[in-house]
Specification:
alpha/beta; TIM Barrel; eight-stranded parallel β-barrel; about 45% helix
Length: about 290
Amino acid sequence: MSLQKVTINDIIGKKKKGEKIVTITSYDYSLAKIVDNSGIDLILVGDTLSMVMLGYKNTLSVTMDEMIHHTKAVSRGVSNALLVGDMPFLSYKINLTDAVKNAGRFIQEGGAEAVKVEGGTEICPTIKAMINADIQVMGHIGLTPQAIYEFGGYLVQGKTIEAAKKLILDAKNLEESGVFSIVLEGIPWQIAKIITSSVDVPTIGIGAGVYCDGQILVIHDMLGIFTEFKPKFVKYFGNIGESIRHALNNYKDEVINGIYPDREHSYEFPEQELNKINEWIENVDVCKEAHKLT
């Protein structure tokens, strides 16, 4: 299937045309190549790799170097989708200089075409600084995992009138700052619907209902590979985790019972030449001959 390279203008244009935007996370070359060939619009190298790839308990532990490492791997497998790198904890909220420099690393070293940052109105000056440096930015409001200690856990946001108002205002300010899209995570679908109709840039939902302009999921969640916890919004679109476990058990059993590898999966030495090898072994001191090679 011949696919056309997706650009930021394409993503924005999909909202204008009322077309849904399909996005997913990826963290390595092999899966990214499969995702890219499937016609997904946007691939995010999310800081969720902290948990699903590196085994940390939350997203706060992953470093810039680790994010760049995985973004580089993904970029090698992506030719069609728009590639966005997720800026990790402490990489953009210390000062503007470090924020722009770290965002630039995703573009220059990682091969990404844009970055994603978490935060509302308070992050707007940082977004403007990045855009002034010719770095495109995706926003992210609602449940922002880098602030889980502030929230007290992975809790739905925007459930009160005041909290909902703030999300709407944050979205407007992010739009005015120049973001090309906004991730809405863990908020009531009614509020996500209001935000989506209030801004001209696309909204990408994760746990924010059907009225967002697009959707994103963690690939290890939707494939049933990462199962340590399952948020309400996660749907298993395949049970690849179970398939992997089944395959590994079959492999183990066949090795133990001498079934694998069989002749079909083994290399052959020419039968007519094999007698010469056996005769040679019978007529020479193999250990002595081996020592001659050292």
